[in-house]
């Protein structure tokens, strides 16, 4: 049986493997805590994965939160629901996703999400852009002028529809 598509070219050329794995313990506290009780945990940042992907655990707070429909030009985004119910916008409608449900959004795909505790999900971006500044800036809740907010969203590849 032949493969229809070959593997990508090697990025590791040494003859022997190396001990380069790292572990993030479940006891590690979240990097961000939002005012509504939600949290964001940096499971694997773009910097840690040579910008191949970024993976985050998002836990919703008591009140419903999440971004309105938007799209990205340079990154794909993936959602995997771990617990509770999360409303996901798939570009056509808001759908209720439950544990084990997965949504893939390619570059340019319109999407959004909404949820409240107790609900959590994994968010993955590929390639791994610097999403940490995006999450941290929004968590601080600093006021921005309309132009500052537009520049911030543009810098973070986020375009509202």
From TrEMBL:
Domain of life of the organism encoding this protein: Bacteria
Protein name as it appears in the record: Cupin
Organism classification: Bacteria, Bacillati, Actinomycetota, Actinomycetes, Micrococcales
Domain Cupin type-2: 59-124
UniProt source species: Janibacter melonis
């Amino acid at each position: 049986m032949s493969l229809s598509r070959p593997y990508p070219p090697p990025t590791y050329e040494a003859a022997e493997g190396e001990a380069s794995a790292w572990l993030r313990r479940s006891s590690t506290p979240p990097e961000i805590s939002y005012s509504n009780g939600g949290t964001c945990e940096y499971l694997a940042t773009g910097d840690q994965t040579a910008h191949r992907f970024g993976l985050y655990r998002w836990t919703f707070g008591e009140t419903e939160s999440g971004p309105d429909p938007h799209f990205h030009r340079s990154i794909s985004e993936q959602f995997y629901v771990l617990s509770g119910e999360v409303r996901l916008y798939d570009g056509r409608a808001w759908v209720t996703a439950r544990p084990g449900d997965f949504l893939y959004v390619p570059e340019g795909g319109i999407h959004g999400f909404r949820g409240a505790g107790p609900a959590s999900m994994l968010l993955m971006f590929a390639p791994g852009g610097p999403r940490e500044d995006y999450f941290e800036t929004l968590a601080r809740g600093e006021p921005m002028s309309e132009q500052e907010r537009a520049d911030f969203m543009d810098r973070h590849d986020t375009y509202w529809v």
